[in-house]
Input
Amino acid sequence: MLTNLTIALDMMGGDYGPRSSIPAAILAVKKYPNLTLLLCGNEDVLRQALQKESHLDHPRLIVKHCEQVVTNNCEPAHALRNKRNSSMRIALELVKSGQAQACVSSGNTGALLSMAHYVLKMLPGIKRPALITSMPTEKKQPVYLLDLGANVLCDPETLFQFAIMGSIVAGEALDKAQPKVSLLNIGAEDIKGHDGIKQAAKLMCECEHLNYQGYCEGSDIFSGKSDVIVCEGFVGNIALKTCEGIAKLIMLKFTNALKKHFFYKVLAFLLRPVIKKLYKKVNPDQYNGASLVGLRGIVVKSHGNASNKAFLAAIDEAVREVNRRIPEKIQTAFERMAKTEEASVSQD
Amino acid sequence: MLTNLTIALDMMGGDYGPRSSIPAAILAVKKYPNLTLLLCGNEDVLRQALQKESHLDHPRLIVKHCEQVVTNNCEPAHALRNKRNSSMRIALELVKSGQAQACVSSGNTGALLSMAHYVLKMLPGIKRPALITSMPTEKKQPVYLLDLGANVLCDPETLFQFAIMGSIVAGEALDKAQPKVSLLNIGAEDIKGHDGIKQAAKLMCECEHLNYQGYCEGSDIFSGKSDVIVCEGFVGNIALKTCEGIAKLIMLKFTNALKKHFFYKVLAFLLRPVIKKLYKKVNPDQYNGASLVGLRGIVVKSHGNASNKAFLAAIDEAVREVNRRIPEKIQTAFERMAKTEEASVSQD
Output
């Protein structure tokens, strides 16, 4: 933790832009004395915001002027072709050139995925990047879910690679040598699901580097029985966002129920801190950043409507991933698997 | 509501068998004076259970002896071939022969789907049956979600047919002439999702009989903006079960948080009725039965671990569907669409 860290931030993304990214950046340099932040965005806007917060001349907050912004409704292909001077693109280029060890953005997810893939490139042997996040469980340790939408549909080999990458991320985060990996399916029995799922299960089952546990149903995501849950992006995105929706609904129904009687109104007032804390704990939206894995660099995606604290949580996540050297560890694992495969082929 | 109703119940299914189905049947005949129930299952077991509840000679509780039971781990193909005298099969046969107007089972979902498809057959022009249920929303009216797992993968035409069927079910239930139909996707923009989703969206958009609203994200399922949300079975099952999982997690975290201090413990005790009521409201598991639509008959699937009340809720649902004549209305709609299509073809 004592070596110097440099992280590039896309300051202009998300619903709030510098209104949340500037306070988050200031909190981050206070929190990490070894952290330098490269603030990518419109120089005038950023300098003004820094001045307002009395941090204009902070030696570890360095503004990198970018002329363009990738907006939320910008199509990925358009962003890739026409937004070469955007804060998002420059933040990624800083990682590519080695000036930063990671980047964080709360901008347009599709554009970030395309740009990150294009600028940083895949690690050798990996087919597709995946978006991974941790979610709370009934136990103390969280569960890691991937892919959350980087790849709408996935072939069995891609799902298998996600299992390997998820296992490395969870292993480092939870300090476990053999994290338990499950495949999300519509039933726990072998006959359940479609062919792609069954083939992916076979690949995971046969791999000696994976502690594969079998299928996991949606109702079991939060049980804490698995450390990693693998699914294709379409399904992962729906599962994650359905959680957001139902968490919001439960909180709304609960506060409405409490409003019905004066007695419960008083209770509700007394319970406010508990309810607030709980909502933050269980709403994945509020939980932290999601990371792109499989690339030659660390990219953390913060939620579009991230508050200061949520954006700071994404910076925290980037710091942790730099310290854990996730991309190198993924690369080593895939190289080792390729060697095992070669050896078994030459033996045959 | 005054005409006589007859519903066949599979008494042996689910985790509790007659322990929940007998009390539910007794509650149902008390609730509906015009309802006769055909209780399919082992005669000795059922008579003994009825006697225990002092309802052995109730004139509207008629035992139909069945020698076999479809267990939870029985494969659908095996059930279809070898369980012709099971309570599940007999209940379906009673619907087919017209002796019952609907059937309810809390048994093995896969087996029920296969048997119902085989025994009752599809309505003309409909490709696949779908499992549909209502879920709570932020507004007063629920939303109808289909398919929940009857079809793992679906082609665009099948998703389109689900939209039509869902629209009829929701229209009748919510008393709306033009229920709002959305397609579940990983983003609201047109460019989001895979080809199958985009093709299904095109079919829905072009259909004059549908009030199609566009894509809906997972986080928007419970907003109350849509009356019907369409997805393929894999995705619907994951969404539904993820809700069960997160609802359970939230309740657990909430009660744990309340246990931490004596003050909150007292509050928790006072709040018990509100929490209990809320859990029932938002946990789809507890909500009610799911129905199979698209078949020549009414089949309601109650959850496997349904309590007396939950099984009664499934009987309630069957009663409502008989009164609403859902299968006839679906048939009429598809016939009308086929005629419109023929007319437009002959005009061309």
Q: What stands out?
A: The CA atoms of residues 137 and 326 of chain A lie 23 Å apart. The domain at 1-126+294-348 of chain A is CATH 3.40.718.10 (Isopropylmalate Dehydrogenase). Chain A touches chain B through 58 residues (CB under 8 Å). The first strand of chain A starts at residue 5 and ends at 10.
